[in-house]
């Protein structure tokens, strides 16, 4: 039962990576559009990224 | 001291970055020397491994050892067989049908069996914990590798405990001193206060007030500031040559998360509980579905706080140590400097991560407090 668990954890981490990448990319777009809102966008970005990151870590530790 | 000039900041960052590098490199070097002295012993009990494989095993073991808490404060060893150790033992406090207090020097770095009041104790090499043994120090394991020996209640002052104490004392002296210095200098920060004042104001104006609200933020400020500086200082200490790993310890991050959970729960207003048990604005049937999910969410939130900080710091340490081990594994003119450069850059990144994790923890804690102390729908807010 070792391999399915590890593969599952890997899939979750790939998902988390895509998610964080999308958050970062969208934040870049948003900052390019409204540079004056950089601070607020960064804060929201960090929170969202941290929440997803938590799931990724949980998957790694569960595997 | 001038704190407003840029070169000092750069110098500080470079200093911190290089510090950890020397420590880790030094330790890796040491362990290889140590292990060389023990090869005879290893050969008898391990399968026959090639020289490279054995070295890999040693490096792995060393990294694992670094991540564990330990009962003595070992900084580095030197000498041909690493026979001179620099460091100091810490007190061991056990409850095993009576109190046993003795110095961890009795264990001689986990090599010997310690005797106290007719009982024998030994530190397991696997998890670094103290087990009760017979006079020979035999530790029995079952087929799954789980240790069968009895485990006494351990209240020892371990390395992490010691460093938490140091961080607490440092924070107390630093911030109590800063508080006093404001009175003396007529409400103007002086010395290190010039460095810390903007950070404290940032936490107040950018983290506490937007998330918790102007009305209630004051009572949470002490906790937010404490937790921010505790995590930050602990993370920075983790990068120094002392080789401690305070925040990379599940028990410690768990305690921090538990405090956040208790404060959220006990300061919560009616509106918060209403949102959990009887979500307004959704059909009645949906309310029954949402209630258990929301209730579970209150526990998942601090749980994710715990895992995030722990995993981030642990992962940082593992990657850093692995890169430094790579320096020895490559063992060539091209590979080793490359690994060195990589680990140097990564150390700088870790300095950033140390701050970022403290910020995220504080930020999310403030977010949860904000949800707890909210009183009605914020039509006017933001």
UniProtKB/TrEMBL annotation, chain A:
Position of the signal peptide: none
Key words of the record: ATP synthesis, Cell membrane, CF(0), Hydrogen ion transport, Ion transport, Lipid-binding, Membrane, Transmembrane, Transmembrane helix, Transport
Record GO cellular component, one term: proton-transporting ATP synthase complex
Protein localization: Cell membrane; Membrane
Transmembrane segments: 6-23, 44-62
Gene Ontology MF: a single term: lipid binding
Membrane topology: Multi-pass membrane protein
Biological role stated in the UniProt entry: F(1)F(0) ATP synthase produces ATP from ADP in the presence of a proton or sodium gradient. F-type ATPases consist of two structural domains, F(1) containing the extramembraneous catalytic core and F(0) containing the membrane proton channel, linked together by a central stalk and a peripheral stalk. During catalysis, ATP synthesis in the catalytic domain of F(1) is coupled via a rotary mechanism of the central stalk subunits to proton translocation.
Family according to the record: Belongs to the ATPase C chain family.
Protein name, as recorded: ATP synthase subunit c
Organism in which the protein naturally occurs: Flavobacterium aciduliphilum
Species classification: Bacteria, Pseudomonadati, Bacteroidota, Flavobacteriia, Flavobacteriales
Gene symbol of the encoding locus: atpE
UniProtKB/TrEMBL annotation, chain B:
Membrane topology recorded in Swiss-Prot or TrEMBL: Multi-pass membrane protein
Entry's transmembrane regions: 160-178, 220-240, 246-264, 276-297, 309-328, 340-369
One Gene Ontology molecular-function label: proton-transporting ATP synthase activity, rotational mechanism
InterPro entries: ATP_synth_F0_asu, ATP_synth_F0_asu_bact/mt, F0_ATP_A_sf
Main location: membrane
Keywords assigned: ATP synthesis, Cell membrane, CF(0), Hydrogen ion transport, Ion transport, Membrane, Signal, Transmembrane, Transmembrane helix, Transport
Keyword Signal listed: yes
Location(s), subcellular: Cell membrane; Membrane
GO CC annotations on file: plasma membrane; proton-transporting ATP synthase complex
Xref: Gene3D superfamilies: ATP synthase, F0 complex, subunit A
Family statement: Belongs to the ATPase A chain family.
Record-linked NCBIfam families: ATP_synt_6_or_A (TIGR01131)
Function: Key component of the proton channel; it plays a direct role in the translocation of protons across the membrane.
Protein name: ATP synthase subunit a
Organism: Flavobacterium aciduliphilum
């Amino acid at each position: 039962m070792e391999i399915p668990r590890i593969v599952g954890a890997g899939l979750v981490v790939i998902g988390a990576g895509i998610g964080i990448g999308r958050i970062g990319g969208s934040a870049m777009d948003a900052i390019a559009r409204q540079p004056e809102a950089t601070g607020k966008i960064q804060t929201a970005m960090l929170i969202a990224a941290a929440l997803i990151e938590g799931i990724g870590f949980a998957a790694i530790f569960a595997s | 001291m001038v704190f407003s000039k840029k070169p000092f900041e750069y110098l500080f960052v470079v200093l911190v970055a290089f510090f950890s590098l020397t420590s880790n490199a030094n330790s890796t070097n040491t362990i290889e020397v140590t292990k060389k002295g023990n090869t005879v012993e290893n050969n008898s009990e391990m399968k026959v491994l090639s020289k490279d494989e054995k070295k890999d095993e040693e490096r792995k073991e060393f990294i694992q050892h670094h991540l564990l808490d330990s009962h003595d404060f070992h900084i580095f060893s030197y000498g041909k067989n690493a026979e001179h150790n620099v460091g100091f033992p810490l007190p061991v406090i056990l409850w095993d049908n009576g109190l046993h207090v003795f110095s961890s020097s009795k264990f001689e770095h986990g090599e010997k069996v310690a005797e106290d009041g007719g009982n024998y104790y030994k530190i397991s090499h696997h998890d670094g914990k103290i087990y009760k043994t017979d006079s020979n120090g035999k530790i029995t394991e079952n087929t799954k590798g789980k240790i069968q020996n009895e485990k006494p209640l351990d209240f020892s002052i371990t390395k992490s405990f010691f460093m938490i104490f140091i961080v607490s004392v440092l924070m107390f002296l630093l911030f109590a001193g800063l508080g006093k210095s404001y009175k003396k200098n007529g409400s103007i920060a002086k010395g290190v206060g010039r460095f810390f004042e903007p950070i404290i104001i940032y936490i107040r104006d950018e983290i506490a007030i937007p998330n918790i609200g102007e009305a209630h933020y004051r009572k949470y400020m002490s906790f937010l500031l404490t937790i921010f500086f505790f995590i930050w200082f602990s993370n920075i200490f983790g990068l120094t040559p002392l080789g401690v790993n305070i925040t990379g310890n599940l028990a410690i991050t768990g305690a921090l998360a538990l405090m956040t959970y208790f404060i959220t729960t006990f300061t919560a207003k009616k509106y918060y509980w209403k949102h959990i048990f009887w979500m307004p604005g959704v059909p009645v049937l949906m309310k029954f579905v949402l209630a258990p999910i929301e209730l579970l969410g209150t526990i998942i939130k601090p749980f994710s706080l715990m895992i995030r900080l722990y995993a981030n710091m642990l992962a940082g340490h593992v990657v850093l140590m692995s890169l430094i081990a790579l320096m020895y594994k490559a063992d060539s003119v091209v590979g080793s400097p490359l690994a060195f450069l990589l680990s140097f850059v990564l150390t700088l990144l870790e300095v950033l991560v140390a701050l970022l994790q403290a910020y995220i923890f504080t930020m999310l804690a403030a977010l949860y407090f904000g949800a707890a102390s909210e009183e009605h729908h914020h039509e006017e807010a933001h």
